[in-house]
Amino acid sequence: MDRIDLPSGVLDAIAAPPADREPIVKQELAVSLYREEYLSFGKARELAGLSKEEFHRLLGERGVERHYTAADLALDVEYARD
Questions:
Q1: How high is the pLDDT of residue 1?
Q2: Are 14 and 26 in contact (CB under 8 A)?
Q3: Which of 24, 25, 61, 76 has a Cα at 20 to 30 A from 49?
Q4: Pick from 72, 20, 8, 11: which is nearest to 49 by CA?
Q5: What pLDDT, in 10s, does the model give residues 18-76?
Q6: How far is the C-alpha of 82 from the C-alpha of 76, rounded, in Å?
Q7: Full domain range(s) for residue 65
Q8: Which of 73, 62, 69, 2 has the alpha carbon at shortest distance from 28?
Q9: Is residue 1 part of a domain?
Q10: 38 belongs to a structural domain
Q11: Residue 3 counted as domain residue
Q12: What is the DSSP letter of 50?
């Protein structure tokens, strides 16, 4: 598995209990990458380590709209018909 190494001083500077720091970084990175359309919902959710419902809630708290294209709609309609 690839890893992103953060300088320990940066991680230590996060104003949260030590056990919460890595999950916070992952969630914030996931939200940012999803917002900028670098990651799909599923991959961003995976990075954040959250369930679908939890990630939806987190996006809502951050005011990030879910990306849903016409192609996504067509796939959903096709799936519903089958």
A1: 52
A2: no
A3: 76
A4: 20
A5: 999 999 999 999 999 999 999 989 999 999 999 999 999 999 999 998 887 777 778 78
A6: 10
A7: 8-81
A8: 62
A9: no
A10: yes
A11: no
A12: -
Is there a contact between 34 and 64 (Cβ–Cβ < 8 Å)? yes
What total number of domains does the chain contain? 1
* Model-wide pTM > 0.85: no
Nearest to 12 by CA among 3, 21, 4: 21
Query: Can you say whether residue 39 is alpha, beta or left, with left for phi > 0 and alpha for psi between -120 and 50 degrees?
Result: beta
Burial 7-40 (b: 16+ CB within 10 A, else e): eeeeeeeeeeeeeebeeebbbeebbebbbeeebe
Torsion of CA 43, 77, 72, 56, to 10 degrees: -50
Domain annotation covers residue 2: no
Tell me the C-alpha distance between 59 and 70, whole Å.
Answer: 21
pLDDT computed for residue 70 by the predictor:
79
Neighbouring C-beta atoms of residue 6, cutoff 10 Å: 13
**Residue 60: per-residue pLDDT:** 95
